[in-house]
Amino acid sequence: NVMTNMDRAKDADLLARIAPGNDVTARFPVSNPATGAHIADVADMDTEDAARAVRRAKEALPAWAAKTAKERAAILRRWHDLILDNQEALATLLTREQGKPIAEAMGEIVYCASFVEWFAEEGKRAYGDIIPTNAPGRRLLVLRQPIGVVGAITPWNFPVGMVTRKVAPALAAGCTIVLKPAEDTPLSALALAALARDAGFPEGVLEVVTAARAEAVARVLTDSPDVRKLSFTGSTRVGKLLMAQCADTVKKLSLELGGNAPFIVFDDADIDAAVAGAIQSKFRNAGQTCVCANRLFVQAGVADEFAARFAAAVEALPVGDGLAGGNAIGPLINSAAVAKVDGLVRDALAKGAQCVLGGGGHALGGNFYAPTILTGVDSAMEIASAEIFGPVAPIMPFETEEEVIARANDTPYGLAAYFWTRDLGRAWRVAEQLEYGMIGLNEGIISSESAPFGGVKESGIGREGSKYGLDEFLELKYFTMGGL
Ligand code: ADP
Question: Where is the active site (predicted)?
Answer without folding.
Answer: 256
